[in-house]
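User: Okay, second chain of the day. Same drill as before: sequence in, structure tokens out.
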Amino acid sequence: MPATAVFYHLIRAGLDETVMTTVSRALGAGWRVMIRAPVPGLLEHLDAKLWLGPEDGFLAHGLAGGAQDADQPVLLGPGAIGNAAKGLMLLAGAEAAREEAVGLERIWVFFDGADPEAVGLARQRWTTFTSWGLAAQYWSDEGGSWVKKTERAAAG
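Assistant: Same drill. Structure tokens below.
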């Protein structure tokens, strides 16, 4: 069964906090995660945040391109999934291929609600992912807590 695409419209919540919470939950479900972004600075920023987090919240991870990529429970990089991930996070306009979705449990799309270009790109991703037959959910934190605004069942 293909992945469910979950869209997070960041209005009040910060990207760092939302990524860390989501990664923690995914790891708790037994999934490996790939965090994909086309912006190296963002990946390095998240790498530092994950290393500097509280001891009780440490998330083992690595930047793609190392000898241990396949062993990382969380891998950060701009390219292909290199750690047998069941979850793929798309940040800063990163893309996913249809072939990837088949082997995943979840695709998360995080986008900045104050950036019209990011909102437009998220809408395009919604259309693309649902055209592939993926289930999709749209969450927003505009009221201060996460609320599911809409969802679409998987096709077929």
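The radius of gyration is 15 Å.

User: Thanks, on to the next one.
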